[in-house]
Amino acid sequence: MRGPVSELPLVFEAVCYAVGGTQILRSLDLTIAPGAPSAIIGPNGSGKTTLLRMAMGLLAPTSGRVTWGGQTDPAPRRRAILFQRPVMLRRTAAGNIAYALRQAGCPSARVAGRVEELLAQAGLSGLASRPARRLSGGEQQRLALARALARDPELLLLDEPTANLDPAATRAVEDIVRIAAQSGVKILMASHDLGQVRRLAGDVRFMSAGAMHESAPAAEFFQSAKSPEAQAFLRGDIVT
Amino acid sequence: MLESASAFHLILSGDPTLFAIVRLSLAVSLSAVLLAALVGLPLGGLLALTRFPGRDAVVVLINAFMGLPPVVVGLTVFLLLSRSGPLGSFGLLFTPTAMVIAQAVLITPIIAALTRQTVEDLWSEYRDEMNAMGVGPAQRLATLLYDARFSLVTAMLAGFGRAAAEVGAVMIVGGNIEGFTRTMTTAIALETSKGDLPLAMGLGAILLTLILLINSAAWGVRAIGERQAG
Ligand SMILES: Nc1ncnc2c1ncn2[C@@H]1O[C@H](COP(=O)(O)OP(=O)(O)OP(=O)(O)O)[C@@H](O)[C@H]1O
Ligand SMILES: [Mg+2]
Fold it and tell me: Quick one: which of A13, B23, B70, B124 could link to B169 by a disulfide (CB 3.0–4.6 Å)?
């Protein structure tokens, strides 16, 4: 399942997505190249989750085109996603990670060792044999992140990775993300936590109502957003 | 009072005829559950995961077949296995094998229908994560059956209960031959009609006890397993 082909750049060209007559993504262009984490921000319902699912290859555009490293085949090679609401398999914490490893083609002899490393990285070593679905929300979130990293991704998609987490758990997740980014994993994350976006992201993509309005380096975006929609969003006005 | 005292006595004295009947009943019904599970688990799982024209009709049909009348199944299997039937050359009619086949036919729809529902529910929960992990179709079915295993035990128990309790199908294809195809239910029917109520009641008590024991054991396995796997 590991091709020599790269997942990057991830490119959306004039992508539209409609469900039953409702336009969810409107002629959206996006290029995600290797580098510091990219953040997608925008109000509720603006289409961030839809965009990430499409970037994962789980949804096909109604029109337009998505390519990964120039390829149109949507089968996930070296990409992974942390869903807004992750679902744990009915297995232990270690079992969840082992499953992801095996699916990603990790040789059986290496599975146990990798499971330990990933659990340790997520700060879950003590919970290896606990049923995953009985872990707390924050523990499940970290486990889901470890499970995504088990795919050894080149492109990691994160959908609100720290919504519902307390400050300590948020820090723990951000640390894992930062380390992954430093080791060369390209991260594309949707977040409502603007502080987090400032802390982690190199560039920001702002979308509302299914359209991409602005794309800028993070510092520049927060200092002087250009589009009226982004300015209103940053002021805390209601934007649709 | 007198009857139940005698039934008790028969059980406690370990009557060999009684023992043989109990053993045959268990062997037939458990084999039927195994056979039905071999067909019903993959069938139900595939039905849950595939979409094809006419799928809804197949689902409704299998759901309806959960209520197949045992005598109708018995009659059908009888016609298939009788000397002039298409499978007559195997000489299976009036053997325990014929009884296993009839009971398996009776309960395959139960196991398939409950498996379909269980796997479909779990799939709607797992779909995104499994697609994101690049899980292929064969692996998908295996994973869902494995992760649903504790619920599927209940489906198999439902099948076992139905098989162990029915009398119509085994009577028709087994013939209730003493020492060969006589089961607890056919013996109860026979002894009751002959007026030997003590034996009938003894067998009835044993049948209920066995079904209770098997269900308790399965419940225990499920409880332990769920505590470990979540
Ligand atoms: N399958 C679907 N059918 C109909 N409408 C959908 C479907 N999927 C998404 N939508 C709609 O598309 C819009 C965008 O949804 P999406 O989940 O992508 O938003 P989001 O930006 O992630 O929002 P949030 O910040 O609340 O997570 C919403 O209005 C949603 O109701
Ligand atoms: Mg969302």
Answer: B70
Can you give the pLDDT at residue B63? 95
Strand partners, A156: A80, A187
Q: Kindly state if the Cβ of A50 falls inside 6 Å of ligand 1.
A: yes
Supply the pLDDT for residue A4: 61
Q: pTM for the full model?
A: 0.89
Domain parsing of chain B, residue ranges: 2-229
Residues of chain A with Cβ-Cβ distance to B135 below 8 Å are 103
pLDDT digit string, tens, across residues A74-130: 888 899 999 999 999 999 999 999 999 999 999 999 999 999 999 999 999 999 999
Residues of B in contact with A141 (CB under 8 A): none
A158 Cα to chain B: minimum distance (Å) = 13
Q: Does A104 touch chain B (CB under 8 A)?
A: yes
Instruction: Calculate the average pLDDT of chain B.
Output: 92
Torsion angles phi and psi, residue A212, rounded to 5: -90, 125
Q: What is the pLDDT of residues B17-36, one digit of tens each?
A: 888 999 999 999 999 999 99
DSSP structure string for A128-178? TTSBGGGS-HHHHHHHHHHHHHTT--SEEEEESTTTT--HHHHHHHHHHHH
| Alpha-carbon span A125 to A93, nearest angstrom | 9
Inter-chain CB proximity B230 and A100 less than 8 Å: no
What ipTM, to 2 d.p.?
0.91
Give dist(CA B101, CA B169) in Å, integer.
Answer: 10
At A10, give phi and psi (nearest 5°): -90, 125
CB–CB of B132 and A76 under 8 A? yes
A vs B: CB pairs below 8 A = 53
Contact A131 B133 (CB under 8 A): no
Evaluate: CB of A240 within 6 angstroms of ligand 1: no
Restricting to B residues 72-101, those with a Cβ less than 8 Å away from any Cβ of A are none
Which residue has 């089961």 as its token pair? B183
Domains in chain A, start-ordered, CATH in brackets?
10-235 (3.40.50.300)
For residue A162 and ligand 1, the question of a CB distance below 6 A is answered with: no
Atom 4 (ligand 1) nearest CA = A19
- 8 A C-beta contact, residue A61 and residue A28: no
Architecture of the CATH domain B2-229: Orthogonal Bundle (1.10)
Asked whether residue B190 carries a pLDDT value surpassing 90, the answer given is yes
Looking only at Cα atoms, what is the longest distance across chain B? 68
Q: What distances in angstroms separate CA B196 from CA B6, B191, B203, B230, one per listed residue?
A: 10, 5, 11, 50
Alpha-carbon distance A238 to nearest alpha carbon in chain B (angstroms): 31
